[in-house]
Specification:
Layout lengths: L1 H14 L10 H27 L11 H10 L11 H11 L13 H25 L2
Length: 135
């Protein structure tokens, strides 16, 4: 369990940059760290899901909006007819810089963090754009 805790803290410190916050009150800092813990857990959980349950349905970890954005944004053909969770998690990793070559190991936490960050920005932009355009 120690390795998992270390990886979680690495995501919290390096990915979320928790130590760089300039908040001055304990309540605000507590709220920020609580939110960062949820984000760090999600990144770590998705990375581990890709390795332990690759054939799970994508709705296990992703919202319908995220799935729709990934389908439109990252063009590739799934190996089978069914689009699995692993298929979508690799798309997220590709947004974060993962090359997805045949000889590459499974995506790690860093590319998952970067990819999720980009996906969130793009999904928010798509929702605001659809709302703004009236679609």
């Amino acid at each position: 369990m120690r390795w998992k805790i270390e990886v979680f803290h690495k995501i919290l410190k390096s990915g979320c940059k928790a130590e760089e916050s300039k908040l001055r009150t304990a309540q605000r800092l507590t709220n920020l760290i609580a939110l960062f813990c949820i984000l760090s857990w999600r990144v770590f959980w998705m990375t581990m899901l890709n390795r332990s349950a690759p054939d799970a349905p994508p709705t296990l970890a992703l919202t319908a909006t995220e799935i729709g954005v990934l389908d439109r944004l990252v063009n590739d053909k799934p190996k089978g007819r069914q689009k699995t969770l692993s298929h979508y998690l690799i798309k997220i990793a590709r947004l974060g810089g993962y090359l997805a070559r045949a000889s590459d190991p499974p995506p790690g936490n860093t590319v998952m963090w970067r990819g999720l960050s980009r996906l969130t920005d793009i999904a928010l932009g798509a929702m605001v754009g659809a709302e703004f355009m009236g679609n």
